[in-house]
Amino acid sequence: MEEKLYTREECYDSERIAKLAGHYREILTLLGEDPEREGLVKSPERIAKAMAFLTRGYTQDPHEILRSAMFQEEYKQMVLVKDIQLYSLCEHHMLPFYGKAHVAYIPNGRITGLSKVARVVECYARRLQVQERLTVQIRDCIQEALDPMGVAVVIEASHMCMQMRGVEKQGSSTTTSAFTGIFLKDPRTREEFMNLIR
Questions:
Q1: How much of the chain is helix, strand and coil, in % rounded to 5?
Q2: Which residue in 45, 161, 163, 192 is the catalytic one?
Q3: Is residue 85 annotated as a catalytic residue, yes or no?
Q4: What DSSP string describes 77-124?
């Protein structure tokens, strides 16, 4: 079985969960609910555990994730991991946004395990985020850890803060991109990446 990005102790520390649950109990009261009602008695703890799980990326070091499976290799072509599912929470309203990330890099003597690229996406996504920063953090982490010839990241996501509240525009999606190195300097390399993810 594949190792997880977090440990149960990090995610569900009992003292932390108890404190979070106390706050959620108060929130339920402020919303006009009765936290002692049968259906809600265990909800504060459930919500606390859910939030700890959804923000577990804070307990991880994404650079270390990449370094844990780094290998010398003279491969100099594009490495692309596409359609990486991601789920995150918008930091403005703490509502979900979800979609997929496409991540590519061109090695410069070092590669990493393919699953580690997806783990880096997961690590940053499981924090309170904005899509723009998430895109740049993934790019910068891979650039710093592997020092490749270039990195390209594109994220396509739907935001519940736009669909459930505010403008309530269903079916809308947001695309962000971030590039370094050869993906910035060489339009042909960038175009190859964009064609591969279409």
A1: 45, 25, 30
A2: 161
A3: no
A4: S-EEEEEEEEEEEETTT--EEEEEEEEEEE-SSEEE-HHHHHHHHHHH
Residue 151: what residue type?
Answer: V
pLDDT, tens only, 3-36: 444 455 566 788 999 999 999 999 999 999 999 9
Is 63 assigned a catalytic role? no
Would the pTM of this model clear 0.85, i.e. be above it?
A: yes
* Residue 90 is among the residues annotated as catalytic for this protein: yes
Known catalytic membership, residue 23? no
Catalytic residue among 36, 91, 132, 144: 91
> Distance between the two ends of the chain, CA-based, in angstroms?
32
Known active-site residue 102? no
Q: Is 64 annotated in the active site?
A: no
Average model confidence (pLDDT) across the chain: 93
Residue 131 among the catalytic residues = yes
Q: Which of 11, 60, 122, 131 is catalytic?
A: 131
Q: Model confidence over 97-150: pLDDT tens digits?
A: 999 999 999 999 999 999 999 999 999 999 999 999 999 999 999 999 999 999
Cα 149 to Cα 25, 154, 158: the distances in Å are 51, 17, 31
Can you give the C-alpha Rg of the chain in angstroms?
Answer: 20
